[in-house]
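ok here's Synergist-CTERM protein sorting domain-containing protein:
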Amino acid sequence: MKRYAKRTLLLFAATLALFVLTLVGGVHAANRVVPDTYSTIQGAVNAAGQGDVIQVRTGTYNESIYISTDNLTLVSIDGPGKAVLRGSSITAFSGLKPEAIPDGGATIFIGPSLGVTIDGFSITPGSVLNASGIVHTGGNPANAVTIKNNSLDGFTSYGFHGVWGIEGVGYMTDNTFSFTGNTVKNSATGVFLERLSQCTIRIDGNTFEGSGTGIDIGVFLSSTVSINDNIVRDGEYGIYVANDTTSSVTAEGNSIVGNTQYGMYCDTKTIDSRGNWWGHSSGPRDQKTLPGTPNYNNPNGTGNRVSSYVDYNPWLTSDPATPAPPSGGGGGCTAGIPTPAMLFLLIPMGFLLLKK
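and the structure:
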């Protein structure tokens, strides 16, 4: 009996200790509201602990931000674009080699090896003309990096810049990077990524307009990349990918129009780029000499130009960024789809319906 009571007491003590640890861990994460509790975003960031949420209300904030705590969430709490962040100083960071950080400062700097979520801000250079909107300073974050629902306008270098690894060595490994639902206008490069390994990379549902290069992906290894449902228009290079032989890249449902050099350029390994709109129903301009990779071309296409290693057939024959007409006409892909094979599938289905 005494042994049973002792065991019960030990079990109760262990359960109580676990409950206290859980409670303490839950209390650690906090919501910090600007300007209700903190007059500046940087003040809230400086006070934050790991996992905290910085909620920023409607208003214009003339400040540049440096994030130095892991796994923070910064959110425009009243909705996308309601919190406007205008850089007020040339925020710089001196801890890494210059190749990891673009010149000219940034409106938001994310410290090395930090996961972060930045959600819903309108971000501009401000009076000091910071060259980049958001810069991640590298390292190997343990938590995801998520940039979503923001607008970035007028940066002379990058809307978003992320080069991971330390001192030019290493990669962000086995992690997730998401750049979704953002609008980037009038920047030299919309989003630039390099040195990711075994990562999941999502660049989906964004608008890039008036950029030298809309989407630029440099060195990455053994990763899965989706570049889907974006609008990439009126730049020089729409999408530029330096793919490696071990990664999988899919680009689908994009509207790629008005780019003067290439709609899509890839310098190694074929990208699955079927089902995109290239600016004209005749498809992209592809004048490569055959045999080539892929082993077809489209010399009569008048849409945006594509390089080798871009597998674009079949393509969309209407713009997914434009609502379909009320009649439901138009749309679809070119006649490269194997229609006879579809008929062979439909005939057995018809017999099944007759049997019923």
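+1. The helical segments are 2-28, 41-47, 339-355.
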